[in-house]
Specification:
Shape: elongated
CATH topology of the largest domain: Rossmann fold
Largest sheet: 9 strands, mixed
Distance between the termini: 139 Å
Strand content: 15-25%
Mean pLDDT: 87
Number of helices: 5
Helix content: 25-40%
Strand order of the largest sheet: 6-5-4-7-8-9-10-11-12
Oligomer: single chain
CATH architecture of the largest domain: 3-Layer(aba) Sandwich
Number of domains: 2
Structural class: alpha/beta
Radius of gyration: 35 Å
CATH class of the largest domain: Alpha Beta
Length: 260
């Protein structure tokens, strides 16, 4: 008897029978994705509604003025709120705002943090006084008595002054404005506002300011402003109460005191 040893063969299909592989529906993946997206949008739009608005850093403006400028209110959607556009609205409406950030916290909080400009100087244009911050941004017309604690800037011919914009001179000399901004920044950073009684820009190569009712400080041109202020402060610390005179730091190398 002959015995065949080998791989067994599957029985032949009967006529009409097929062993076709099962196929998954090609639509199931996209349908699941769409369902997840729709569910996420629904949850974000229904459940994450603003109900807690906090304002930090405001002094000149009230919290409500900040909120109104941001244009947000209770019930707004936390995720669909445009924070960049909100910041732009604040700068356009509130000139005293120097920096602003709008942050979201789940599930319902918006925190608005601002840094406000401070008026430290003023310019006279006709019968009106206009306040400036340390970057020469025009903050507005000064009310009666508002200039008492500010530094008057003389010797400049202002052009058109727009609230919230950097000041312009009549001849649109940007270099002079930059020079003034450097001076005002040093005045603010070094805490000298209360001591300076005026800054004279009549000659931009020989800028001077009066300090403490006793000293005339000669800065000279617009070079090395920060270093010149450093020399001035160093000399100021060495003078005694009865000294009155001129402090000249115009060469940017050596400070000279000439008593009157």
């Amino acid at each position: 008897m002959a015995i065949n040893i080998g791989r067994s063969q599957p029985p032949a299909n009967k006529r009409g029978e097929h062993n076709a592989p099962r196929r998954r529906s090609s639509f199931s993946g996209p349908l699941v994705f769409v369902a997840v997206v729709v569910a996420a949008i629904f949850i974000m739009s229904v459940f994450f509604r603003v109900s807690d608005i906090q304002v930090i850093g405001n002094e000149h403006y009230t919290a409500q003025e900040i909120i109104n400028a941001v244009d947000i209110e209770d019930g707004d959607n936390l995720f669909f709120f445009d924070r960049i556009a909100a910041g732009s609205r604040v700068f356009a409406k509130l000139p005293y705002v120097e920096e602003v950030s709008v942050d979201r916290s789940l599930p319902n909080r918006v925190t608005i943090t601002i840094t406000e400009s401070k008026a430290i100087a003023y310019l006279s244009l006709g019968e009106e006084n206009w306040t400036l911050d340390h970057k020469c941004k025009v903050l507005g017309k000064a009310a009666d008595g508002e200039t008492t604690d500010l530094v008057p800037v003389v010797g400049l011919a202002p052009g058109t002054l727009m609230i919230g914009e950097t000041m312009e001179t009549e001849d649109k000399n940007e270099a002079v404005v930059d020079q003034l901004a450097e001076v005002l920044s040093q005045v603010q950073d070094r805490g000298l506002v209360s001591g300076i009684t005026r800054i004279d820009f009549s000659d931009t190569d020989d800028v001077q300011f009066s300090y403490g009712g006793k000293y005339t400080v000669v800065l000279g041109d617009g070079s090395n402003i920060e270093h010149k202020f450093g020399m001035f402060v160093a000399v100021l610390d060495k003078l005694i109460a009865g000294d009155v005179g001129i402090i000249n730091v115009s060469d940017g190398k050596t400070a000279h005191f000439s008593p009157n």
